[in-house]
Fold these 3 entries.
Entry 1:
Amino acid sequence: MKDVSDETLMERVQRRDHSAFSHLVDRYLSRLRPFALRLMGNAEDADDVVQETFLRVWRNAHSWEPGRVQLTTWLHRIAHNLCIDTMRRRRPTTEFNETHADGAASLEQEAMAAELGDTVAAALTTLQERQKTALLLCHYQGLSNRQAAEILDVSVEALESLLARGRRRMRQLLSDS
């Protein structure tokens, strides 16, 4: 099923094909988990959000319409909304864990990279929610501005404004540290 298109995969999921759903999870888990982790700030909450995202995809597969929105955009929108809902129900955490798995790096380089990662992560947590999400979608997830705008349900121009304000605030925060 590796060569199966997203559209074909979702058609099969809509017909309650468990194998297709399993393949969909395999295909998108590695994209959604880092996104949720950066938004939620801890692995446990991120895993809960990603699990609920896929449960909702299974339950609501019929609501996805090919050609209207790309599957990756739809999945990210579901995950984003779940992250926001979860953060509103809970007190936001400032904890942020990011692994630096470069075996060739020296201990000193790893320590510097970890410190920089922690500094960037801490700065990200202080951003306004939509600015943070815009930056994560475009810079960490590698989505286009159009895709990120669809996920946030804003125009491309509004997304670009969020990105500009977020970058400006990040530069300010990082220059102060």
Entry 2:
Amino acid sequence: MDTSTYKAFAQQHLGGFDNLELLINAFTHRSYLNEHKKTAGQHNERLEFLGDAVLELVVTEYLYNNYSDPEGILTNWRSALVRTESISAAANRNGFEPLLRLSRGEKRGSQRAREQILANCYEAVVGALYLEKGYEATKDFISKTLLPTFDEILKSGSWMDPKSRLQEVVQSKDGFTPVYKVLSEEGPDHDKVFVVGVFVNNTLKGEGNGPSKQAAQVAAAAEALAHYQ
């Protein structure tokens, strides 16, 4: 892919970009270097490291300035905004995926792997934009591409942990409180796997497993939420 494609992206989404090599690096996955050692430049992990910090600051500032809720609530909202699913969706909406530079193997990866790559790329682009244009321009980009999704996050309740969200949904729809029961546990004490079921009015709605009862409960709640949705 030639530089004109990245230049067009920069004009449309970033208000232009002087250092196109830096921007291209932001779209370059580590795996791409293995197949293009002489021409690839650098991969995007250092830019991702920088962008992650800038992204968290912008989101934190936005929540602090616009909401007066307690710290714990703000922290949960921030986590929902900067999680992989939210960031990768923002990247996808803004045309990131065709610009990714990946190895042939990564191109055939799972949907979850691609979401992670897109999220990392978004953070890397944030890092590159911060270096190119500074904080205010980067804040403007994040405000346009990511922060508008916050209303839907609030509306859907997806910022809550699965157990809290399930309790809210079940009490609203069915008038009951979910009950968690250990269905089985296997393995030695240092390496146990718990299987937990979540029941609503004595009906099994979800099942999950994990290395602790708490982790298994969260997995069961997530499965039950999928049933309700």
Entry 3:
Amino acid sequence: MKVVLKLFNIVNPDRSYFGMKDAQQLAIIETFVRDFNLRTKIVRVPIVREDDGLAKSSRNVNLTPDERAQAPIIHQALLKGAELHSIGLKPEQIEDEVASYITDGSTGEIDYVKLLSYPSLQPITSETDEVILAVAVKFSKTRLIDNIIM
């Protein structure tokens, strides 16, 4: 964070743009800017996706053709999770459903499926305004991450 603070102090930007692909990093930056009353406004840059919904990543080239065909299920599962959240299912139920959707539709191994408050990345409470549904799925040689913020 020291490097980020130095950069912000040198450049003194009105706005700073950070991608939502690595939502944990974005959460840390947003919290840091808020807690230290920094002048810059953090602008969330949406995840860039392939036509089939897979989040663009340099790691995608490490997928076998079969894994690449299966990988879009990650984004589909996140969208399903967002629907379940909108109708009021409990976080644990949503996490279970999303994990099942991925494991039933792919050979990927779930590293995690988490629904947390955002940007604190803590369990959801009645005070929670925003939530993140984040997943990490490992195919043979490649670990893919994706998320959706609601």
